[in-house]
Specification:
Length: 341
């Protein structure tokens, strides 16, 4: 039975109960009509409470429920201890409402505090939920990281992120459609991995329009860590105190360190900007400029690193083929690369 059918059934129960109970509370001629109206009002209040609970994490709902029960018990105890039986009913209702509210608030916050625990700044707790955004799902490297055990904790895919991936998969643009379908395949792979918990959550924030802002709000509500490739989302989340795992930053940090004098194996693919230069790329995408390598295009060359240049676009390695004398003017050429890069 869907949620819509359950709501209709609850509405019917509220209306029926109100119509039947109306004459027992009021002596008016239209008591049943008044009872039906009260039943409809009760249903509307329950509906609003349900919508509010959707935006809360499950542990907060559980803690709030426990707090409400304790608040009700405290209200009954206060009525007995302070002798409120002979007092106006409004006083008992007021005291009970305050105790129930305080119990629910304290329960929700207490469970959240116990769940979150102390976490060091800048470090993601291994048990904290990892909230995947669209870029991380489509990129696909997150599946390898989970499979190798570098990312732990439950993986959370918000329904609004899944909708965005499905929208890309249904795009009329062939490239976007392929990326969206790749994202769906990555989710299937994650769900098939043994020992990996993947949750699809319906928790949403209707007042927040942008998907990135929804992700940050969800991470703040659940104490989760955002997994993304998006540079802007990373900065916005960090500014709001949300932990972030940026896969691109991780890949950049894990690039092997190459020092001058070491040898690298690279396939030269094209000519460089200066005469005689050949350009190739390491497996991690680092550009290698080989002096006197233009005549070796298409070949796998073992080259000796002469220097490493860090630019705004990334790292660039300058080298020369093994057994070839050093170029007498490498520094001047590097200045040219800086000006043109």
């Amino acid at each position: 039975m869907g949620s819509g059918a359950l709501r209709l059934a609850l509405l019917g129960v509220c209306l029926t109960a109100g119509v039947l109970a109306g004459p027992g509370f009021v002596s008016w001629d239209q008591a049943r009509l008044v009872g039906g109206g009260v039943g409809a009002l009760v249903f509307f209040v329950i509906f609003l409470v349900e919508r509010g609970m959707r935006r809360l994490p499950p542990y907060a709902v559980l803690g709030g429920g426990i707090g409400v029960v304790l608040g009700l018990l405290s209200a009954l105890l206060a009525r007995w201890v302070f002798g409120l039986d002979g007092q106006p009913p409004s006083l008992s209702v007021a005291v009970g409402s305050v105790l129930v509210y305080l119990g629910g608030l304290a329960g929700a916050r207490g469970i959240r505090a116990m769940r979150s625990g102390p976490v060091k700044t800048g470090m993601a707790a291994s048990t904290a939920p990892k909230i995947l955004d669209t870029s991380a799902i489509i990129d696909g490297r997150v599946a390898d990281m989970v499979d190798l055990g570098f990312i732990g904790g439950p993986l959370v895919v918000p329904q609004f992120v899944l909708n965005e991936v499905q929208g890309i998969a249904d795009s009329t643009d062939p490239l976007k459609r392929a990326r969206g379908r790749r994202g769906l395949s990555i989710l299937e792979r994650l769900q098939s991995l043994e020992g990996v918990e993947v949750r699809i959550t319906d928790q949403d924030f209707p007042r927040v329009k942008k998907v990135d802002a929804k992700i940050v709000a969800l991470a703040k509500a659940t104490g989760g860590t955002v997994v993304t490739n998006d540079f802007n989302l990373t900065k916005v989340a960090e500014l709001q105190g949300v932990r972030v795992l940026n896969i691109n930053q991780l890949a950049h940090a894990l690039r092997p360190v190459v020092l001058p004098g070491e040898s690298v194996q690279v396939t030269l693919q094209k000519e460089g900007k200066e005469p005689g230069q050949g350009v190739g790329y390491l497996e991690d995408g680092t550009m290698v400029v080989v002096e006197q390598g233009a005549s070796l295009l298409g070949q796998s060359v073992k080259a000796v690193v002469t220097s490493v240049l860090q630019t705004t676009a990334g790292r660039m390695i300058f080298a020369r083929p093994e057994g070839v004398a050093a170029d007498p003017e490498p520094k001047e050429r590097r200045r040219v690369w800086r000006r043109r890069g």
